[in-house]
Amino acid sequence: MKEAIEQILAELDALKCSSEKEVEEARIHFLGKKGSVTRLFEEFRTVAPEMKREFGQKLNLLKKQATERIESLKESVGTTAGAAASGDDLTMPADPMELGSRHPVSIVRQEIVDIFRKVGYDVAEGPEVEDDWHVFEALNFPPDHPARDMQDTFFVSAGHPNPLLLRTHTSSVQVRMMETLPLPIRVICPGRVFRNEAISARAHCIFHQVEGLYIDKGVTFADLKQAILMFAREMFGADTQIRMRPSYFPFTEPSSEVDVSCNICKGKGCNICKGTGWLEIMGCGMVDPNVLRASGIDPTVYSGFAFGMGVERIAMLKWQVNDLRHYFENDMRFLGEFATAPEV
Ligand code: PHE
């Protein structure tokens, strides 16, 4: 009986079936009424009593293995038969699943926001379709300022005393914050802005900004300088230097443009910084008293600073991208470059 069990096990092991019919034949061969396994159960009755225990166990195991083997063969011919019927080749490797990644502009915007959040700035957002008051009037733009011209601004409704337009900067959100938040205010405003510009490597009609505003009693230009130095070093490295050049914005006085030492040539001069050793990163200044007054803040008690930067510009400097248009064209070869950028 021992040999018979071993022989059936070997047969089961070698068993191959390519159709449901063959599996059924195999089932009958082993487990049918006259099957080889069933027959062994009949023979079992004649086994000497002292051997019954050992053989009983072996036989039960054999039956279990035979049943499982038949079941698994049934399943495997079932799936291949189904696949063959549908014409699908299930042995074909699957298409690799491509993992998405954050857009480089989102990565840098988040990085800028995080730097200011760490030192206590709140984040505020506002509407992209704004009115003239929040984009220009409350920011001390004279009525004939060229930025209001149809050349620079996309108007949604014109010929109205307070026309709707696509915001040209997120300073409009700062106005909304000055109108509504209790003082002191410390806020950054990330968002998308729109300008009627010809699209080139250096300009686009849509881009992103992060603007900042801090208003309290006794805020000075020294505070502004320190905030920007802190930002520049967090963003571009601890040895980054800044320099401020006098400039003009209707909403700040005094105003300045900020340059950082070129993080590529370390100030020696290269083609990214056009040999100057410096890269322009933002505009800033002390909030003009007229702007504070327009939002109901007393400029004899409070003072503040504001700054604003283009996210694409910071991203271009960070990754040495030489054409702004890459950020808008969604070419997967470009976007894929940032797939390994740290999750932020
Ligand atoms: N709003 C300015 C711009 O869009 C940037 C800026 C913000 C400058 C705050 C000074 C102060 O260019």
Features:
2 domains; seven-stranded mixed β-sheet; BirA Bifunctional Protein, domain 2; 9 strands; two-stranded antiparallel ribbon; alpha+beta; 344 residues; binds phenylalanine
Explain what this protein looks like in three dimensions.
It is a single chain. The chain is α+β, with helices and mostly antiparallel strands and 344 residues long. It folds into two domains: 2-86; 104-338, BirA Bifunctional Protein, domain 2 (2-Layer Sandwich), CATH 3.30.930. The chain is built from twelve helices and nine strands. It has helices at residues 2-14, 20-31, 36-44, 49-86, 104-118, 132-135, 171-180, 221-236, 289-294, 311-319, 326-329, 332-335, and strands spanning 122-123, 129-131, 164-166, 185-194, 206-216, 242-249, 252-261, 278-287, 303-310. A seven-stranded mixed beta sheet has the order 1-4-5-9-8-7-6, sandwiched between helices. The protein is elongated, with a radius of gyration of 38 Å. The model has no long low-confidence stretch (mean pLDDT 89).
Topology record:
Elements (H helix, E strand, L loop, with lengths): L1 H13 L5 H12 L4 H9 L4 H38 L17 H15 L3 E2 L5 E3 H4 L28 E3 L4 H10 L4 E10 L11 E11 L4 H16 L5 E8 L2 E10 L16 E10 L1 H6 L8 E8 H9 L6 H4 L2 H4 L9
Parallel strand pairs: 1-4
Antiparallel strand pairs: 2-3, 4-5, 5-9, 6-7, 7-8, 8-9
The structure holds phenylalanine.
How large, in whole angstroms, is the Cα Rg? 38 Å
- Rough shape? elongated
What does the main sheet amount to?
A: 7 strands, mixed
Lateral arrangement of strands in the main beta sheet: 1-4-5-9-8-7-6
Are there runs of 5+ residues with pLDDT below 50, and where? none
Determine the structural class based on helices, strands and strand pairing.
alpha+beta
Question: Averaged pLDDT, please?
Answer: 89
How helix-rich are the residues, as a percent range?
40-55%
Strand content: 15-25%
